[in-house]
Records
---
Amino acid sequence: MIAYNSRDRLTVARRFLEPANSTHRQYEALRAFFVDRVPSAEAAARFGYTPGSFRILVHEFRTQPERDFFLPTARQGRPPGKQKRLRDLVIALRKQNLSVHDISRSLARDGESLSPAAVATILDEEGFAKLPRRRDEERPDHPRPTVADPADVRQLDLSPRHFRTKFGGLFLFLPYRFLSRICGLSPVRVMRQGRAYASLFSGI
């Protein structure tokens, strides 16, 4: 049996009689009016409402009596049975020798969202050990990066050829780019000097 003296009771009672936030104040005022049958004017004065604002509060609560005054706990906020159902699916998929990433992808295909880290936590809680490293042929069939063939320099062909392109004009500037690197000049100066030399030798 828990014993409280009058001072303790008064201290704890103030948590109900003097609400610290507006939602708690509305709850206590409405409870006093509907449950304790306190007159409207007295309930309004007790919890700091004007008579008119308290009548509006009562009217709004009458039209929406299912209103929530308290936030649900984390467990109450979850869909019923979802966590257990996902846990059972994770265990069943692991028994098929799937990794945490494979399990996460498999659940995503079925419309269930569970990260690899969450899958690993469930498996650890259930006592499953980590899978040994597997070869590619032992992994489940799903899209993988394409491995390109190794380059063979002997197949490089530098013989002259022709091709069509809409950006052929860009190749006209390549010589200027190379000359600018060799001479240490900007491509614009190389082009200007090139035009000067061309005009000089054109009259010869």
---
Amino acid sequence: MLRLAPFVLVLAACGGGDAASSGVDSSKKLTELNATERQQLCEYMVEVEGGANTSKMCGDGVTITVKSATDCTSTFSQFEASCTATVANAEACADAAGEDLCNLVGSSSCAFLFQCL
């Protein structure tokens, strides 16, 4: 089972993209977020992607399951120091995944996940 969401954060798949944004400065790099900002972003992502433990079978034995916001925040420590992804990148990925969790592995909006982790 592939546990990509949120951030593999991701990001966090959040139920349909109803919220406009996480409220965190969209230009901030993910590697620069403080604990409060990480939590806020992760809560947004989990909501947009359908809630913690939401799962989808994507074929070829791949199942993507949305992590909890707590699990998501712990993922930040796994980011490479060279990661340049921003909050805007993470929100765009969550929005793409909100329509279909399988987008976490196929959407260009989520490509940063594989560059940062």
---
Amino acid sequence: MYFIKRLQHEVLMHPETFGKTLKEKIHKRLCEDVEGTVHETTGIIVAVLRFHDEQDVERGLIEYETGHASFVINYEAIVFRPFKNQVMDARVSNVHEHGFIANAGLANFNIFVSKHKMPREFAYRADSEMWVAEEEDGAQVISRDCVVRFRVHNLIFPSKKEMVRWYIASINGIHFPYFPPPSFYSHPIF
């Protein structure tokens, strides 16, 4: 789910950036620093919208050792954060004997679906690296680059240094959990 959140970030600026265009350079630096990163409590920062208080840009503190100016910026950003039991779609990026890994379009948003969280009809085929469920009206196949629908179950952080969120998900009980690979579509999904 997407939200607009008010956040705060400290930006360090080199003395050579001081001048008439300082506010624009701070905004550019803020976007470079935070867009695409994971904020511990709110989720993945997708885009910076605007500053909250324009006067915050004018009040910087100079660090005596380096000469850099430190600005604490209050800003609004679009943040992506799925919740437990939320149903979403994602493109499969890796298939292996333990399940599959999918990506929902954001760099830091990875989903792992274990073989234990898939319907029992699915069997892994190592020769073609895909999960296949034989049915009366044909076979459902989960392979690289296909799109699946899943339900978010849990969130894990592998370590504090690695700012990638991993979500544990399930395709059990989801109606139409599978979509064909993108070659079947006339336009891209993600």
---
Amino acid sequence: MFSPIIISVFLFLFGQINEEQKPHVKVYHKSDLIQKHDTPFTSTRMVDTEHLVSIFIHLEPEAEIPEHHHPVYHENIVALSGELSLWLNDEKHTIRAGDIVFVPAGTIMRGVNEGDSDFTAAATFANIGKEGPLMVMGRPEE
């Protein structure tokens, strides 16, 4: 996995964090982030700054990520366990533990855990230098 030093440097350089905003180093283990709720899909924010957001994603079997897009954020997904059917601009991809997926801002996406085991991933969102929300449900308005 990534060392805390690499994560801190990445956050400082790409998150454009000034000294007042600079978060402290955090080390997570996925077992600490899996939250059992009434819903089969959860996401837990690990880092949340003006230019960078990092979340942990957990989907139980048959759970779905509804169709959405990130208008002003690129997304980088690192699959940690399980398997996910992921549609990117209506093209189906199967991502498995160990896969890394780059999703450009504006890409329409949705996912379904069609497997028999939980799917977990870490996702990082980097702002493209424009103002706007992290996520918008559905497709962009034409």
